Fold each of these.
Amino acid sequence: MKLLILTGMSGAGKSTAFKMLEDIGYYCVDNLPIQLLKSFIDLSDRQTSQNQKVAVGIDIRSGKSLDLLQGILEELEQDGKKYDILFLDAEDDVLVKRYKETRRNHPLSQTERIYTSIAKERQAVQFLKDQADYVIDTSHLLTRELKGELERIFVEDQHYESLFITVMSFGFKYGIPADADLVFDVRFLPNPYYVEELRPKTGNDKEVQEFVLAHSNAHIFLAKLVDMLRFLIPNYISEGKNQLVIAVGCTGGKHRSVTLANELYARLKGKEGYGIKLEHRDITKDALQGK
């Protein structure tokens, strides 16, 4: 039997993850009383085939019983029972926004502010995050992107180091992305904006791409950037970083930054050890403002 313990912060997407795990063949049990966990695993192990996949959801809803979990996990290891832990996380501001949008109460919320409840939950489940085999930060993931990550781990069986990279283009005149970890300025390249026939197009169009990439400095920049990232990414992983946002900016976020973000994404995607997505934050803003 293949056992997965699904846990994490309330509001980080565990319910969505359970539905996805069911779709790929897991038998899922959510919010099982911790006192019954070992008995459930023993029973499942005897009655299911060796290839059966079981996911058990355990989180802060267990209350004070959560204190018993560490001892039970140690007993499972002593009995030779193998398991993986998947921990779903998200930034505090994102969790608060999700609770406000759904109008649901946090499991620990009574008369306290939601931020206080989240802080208490983080402290209570930190031991699970420390032991987790997979940590996915869902702060900036769409549902389909979370599904892609789960399929990559549990269906395609790819090596996974719990890092998700966002390659983002942006325009400096609209501000540097607040969540950017690494910011690169490509305004040193010739600007397609000043070529009349290219002005209404974007870095997703072949004509703009050819214009930007016709300059040798664009290729030198990309080569040096990819080389640096290949050094940085394994070190970020070893330090336990879960999210990395690489922001590439030009003046309006429409031509040069889009082209180079596309190229960077193409060179980084498909590598084992991390997930990756591409986002063009400001690509339509000039059009919306009639520029």
Amino acid sequence: MPNKKNPGKPEKLLWHQAFYDAIQLELFEYRNDLEYTFEHQLTSEPLRIDVLIVKKKKDVLIDKNIARIFRGHNIIEYKSPDDYFSVRDFLQVCAYANHYAANTPGVDYSDLSLTFVGARQPRVLLQYMAEKRKYTVERSAPGIYLITGDYLPIQILESPLLPKSENLWLQSLSKNLRVDAASAILEKSKNDKFRIYLSVYLHLIMGVNQRAFKEAIDMAKRFPTLEEVLDEVGLPNWVRQGREEGNVEGEVRAKEKIARNLLAEGMSVEQTARLAELPITQVRALKKSITG
């Protein structure tokens, strides 16, 4: 992305601010139980934790794949897609945890958890933990490495491997976003309850994935729903009446006509099958009959 103030220098991407939005979106249903601090300052000097999440009530269970290790105070360290976690990073965050527990009234070291979130697997760090620290390193779920053997629970999240169905916001912190993920983000972004968290997140994600979002927006404008597809090809009354009357044959004919129109527009067989709600083999046969 160009830097408007200095065109010769690339703009610094706000990955950490976008991550702050994303982690709140991931844990949205627990928004009343968690308190977030961005770049929590540990001392009067520049010594900060990327994100600090504090449970407002200690007995609240955060039943979310990325937060099952959470205790009362949870330190989150994030690396952008171009960066990775080193052994030094790990030791530094452990020092932050000790400093935070020692200098924050009412906080005990046993009430902390550490979470490291990045886009790349930190192989050297995992090896260090297993061989030097003698920790147990377990891949407890897709994209989640659970580290046991320390006084406090530790996890490493490899964001690209997190399931999109459960962790769309974190999994999408990427420069290589797929069109289906961009479409899912746009769809969820329509929900007013998410708006407060989306300004920086969307600015960044859409900026570094312009092509994916352009395709997603173009698809949404053309055929966002089957009903609008029907309106587009001029057959809404026929199909709706066929549905209401149980006219299966009429509905099938309508779907085939929709598919022919979509194929003529240049849409792929897979997209046509999904939008027209027809088997892909049937759509392939229709395409063959059109192209000869």
Amino acid sequence: MSTDITWLTQEAYDRLEQELDERSGPRRSEITKRIEAAREEGDLKENGGYHAAKEEQGKNEARIRQLKQLLENSRVGAPEAEHDEVAPGKVVTVRFVDFGDEETFLLGSREEAAHASVEVYSPTSPLGQAVLGARIGDTVVYELANGKQVTVEIVAAQPYAG
């Protein structure tokens, strides 16, 4: 299953488009005006307002590029998957075999995390990669950053309702 596409809810997609519009329109204009006003003050070497505005401009332009790339490579909804298959856009419950603990999370993008009602794991995270494409009842193993292997059983996989 490809992880090149970022799957977003309609709400997340709309939020990102709105942020892009704000950053490439009003915010960009406001920063440009602050830079021009600071230039008129004279010596730019010791002009803190000028340097702060230029730094903010750089961060704003970087976020605009990031948003454009994200929106170009995203799809609203979730990829086709069987009802019992783990896929982006599904709320997944796993049981840690060695501990018996369960964890429930949304397999989705970090753009969903700020507004999701449940923990969000990326499909590219170690756990996300391990469970992606697995089915309810499957047991998968993934490796932690410290090299330890963890075994989880897929308990549930349901579409995210937001």
Amino acid sequence: MEGRLLLSTIPPVDNRHPYLRPLGVPAVRPNTPVLPFGATKVASFIDPTVGIVNGRHVIVGNKTFIGPYAKLNSTSGFIKIGTGSSILDGATIQSNPTRAKNPTTSILIGNFVSVGFGATVIGPSQIGAFGAQSKPTGIGANALIDSATIEPGAIVGTLARVGPGVTVPAGIYVLPGANVTTNAEASDPALGKVAPITATEASDLSKNLANNTALAAGYAALFQGDSSTGTTNIFTPARKGVFNGNLSAVEGAGNEPGSANGPSFEPTSPTGPTFQAPLGQQQPGLISNFRARVTGEVVFHQQAAIVAHSLGIGNSIRADQGQPFVFGSTFTSGDYVVINSPLGSNVASTGSGITIYDGVQAGDRSVILGGPGAKVSIGGNVIIGAGAVLDRSTIGAGASIGARAYVANSTIADGTVVPTGAIIINNKLVGSIQW
């Protein structure tokens, strides 16, 4: 018998101490992958690949999306995540890395917080806020929050680090690759590590959070079943219109939810990846035990077994925000590689898809991102270093991107060597990763 840890069993927020007890549900069965159990309108979704350690100390609020291969480790300490937040693919949240006896450390992630692809948060840390104090707050891809406070309404850029004891104030944007070690560096743009948040940055963060809230509802519907996805025979709670739950629908290579299940930016019908058949034609590839998490219109010009053999562990290739993704032959990747197109559209003419040509190699924890209006392509025989982030950029054939480099909104010519840790934005070298 399993205990049902329902939303109604969690005490309400204490208005005098809102950070102490935010409304939420422990991330343990049966509250996974849909949390709380049997929810629809307020459902959070935790991808089945998410690694959760000591789930009774991981409290998750409503309408939150936790993406593939994220890690929530509360071996000692607590992790509390608010409403409308997103912990994206490959992110790591670790409450107390020292695992000290009788810890007092926790990680509080408030409402409307986005923790980006491959980012790491180490406790004790607080990001954003709960209740009336909450504002959209963001952490960029492969960034590190190390025992710090990110106030509601602040944004930490891609591959940036905020060190122990530092507080980033509201309205501040930590620049990509910056290593912020003092409160002065975190608050004074004149010191060169932060800047005021622009209207575009704030708007993109809000849209990203809204998209992931929609994806939480969509994947919850795929798992539970509804009038669009049909019933399942695994379990049926006493609840009209919900049929829990087909785990294979949200595992491996599978469908994106489709706009009928919530995300308005997706096609009407759920769409999934295709692989090359033995005779050369493309065929649907809904494979629940596939080596990577692959969703949406992802086109592999290789057979499924060959693709799986070429991928490392923990790869997330999601075309559920922008498509199509088209792969040539002999694509190889390391571990925990992320390929996504945030804020894109699933209409091919908008240019929010990604094309990856033959012979591309992506290193461990590298991130490749598309976006609205960006014609993203990675040319043949490109090498992408470990931890590098490519954001809405075109990389010419034979180029080499150094480890932990950041290339954004740029075009890299054929054969170019981008140094390790270089930061290239809008086709200009603006600095290097500081940590």
